[in-house]
Amino acid sequence: MLQNNFGAVIVAAGSSRRMGASQSKVLMNLAGRPVLSYSLDALCACPLIARLAVVCRDEDREKIEKIAAASPKQVELIAGGPERQDSGLNGIHVLEDCDYLLIHDGARPLVTSNLVQAVCEDALQYGASAAAVRVKDTCKLVDEEGFVLETPPREKLMSVQTPQAFERALYLYAAERAASSGRTFTDDCQLVEAAGGRVHLVQGDYKNLKITTPEDLLSAEAFLAGEKKMRIGSGYDVHRLTEGRALILGGVRIPFEKGLLGHSDADVLAHAVADALLGAAALGDIGKLFPDTEERYRGADSLLLLSEVCRRVRESGHEIKNIDATVMAQRPKLAPYILQMREKLAETCGITTEQISVKATTEEGMGFTGSGEGMSASAVCLLS
Do 237 and 221 belong together in one domain? Predict the structure, then answer.
């Protein structure tokens, strides 16, 4: 038996009828990830959780196996039962070497590891614990015909959430009592209460909502969007004009008597955009990633380099929201090629043309670019 360690069960075997969708709600997309993956991350991040099991439907097993494979802790998949109470027990019986149990609804993706930890620590002290929040509305007790029977005092009402955690012996005793009486419960706290157990409540989180209807999914997406921190990056690059080189800007070959000098194809616009993205994600700059001392980058297509930059930015957990870039050049006129540049850059970055702006300006004959010695480009970007 693992002393003071928890076996966690994520219940994900519901039919999702109220979602009106063809697939289980725990498999639905939430901000680019399956709903279930968020709960797995939060539970895996809690050091008191020693083992995990996901109770799921047979038809969802293959997809959930793929989701669970990305978890840092081993996750066992268990078949669900006819009722939620049965599903929970199926998972608990697998976690035999844990002396405490934690049960969480897979349809509550916004649970935090801090809340999981708080419920676990509370269960260690009291034997049974659950997350709960104060009700905000006045609640009414009504009869079968919809008439009000009573108005309970709001200050004594709590809305119970998951996770819920219990001493293993207490929970199994309560489950046996329920089975012998033929009673079923949709809430594990109620199961323990019916056996005479006392459940202590800890402060939950109003964001820890349960996804039951399509509106709940929209609310969860809004919460996640509000939590994302925006990051701004700026980039700048300059190259000298020389004869015998092709002029390439934003991946577009532009007819001109000169081209830009550089180790790669010297696409000054693509380089500025790449540096802006790297800066926003704090990943260095293109000189660090693609040094001009390496022969493999000689004559390289800068859009391929930019594609690699975008891959690294997304790998670091960021999403490109928009890019604004400006090319400074006295000649040639770039206006006829702006749309092509936007399209090429958008395709490379995996965004729409509406998310990228490219402008061109002269410098009125002044300075390095105004004299026609070279071209420069600047870019700013926004990541989430």
Answer: no
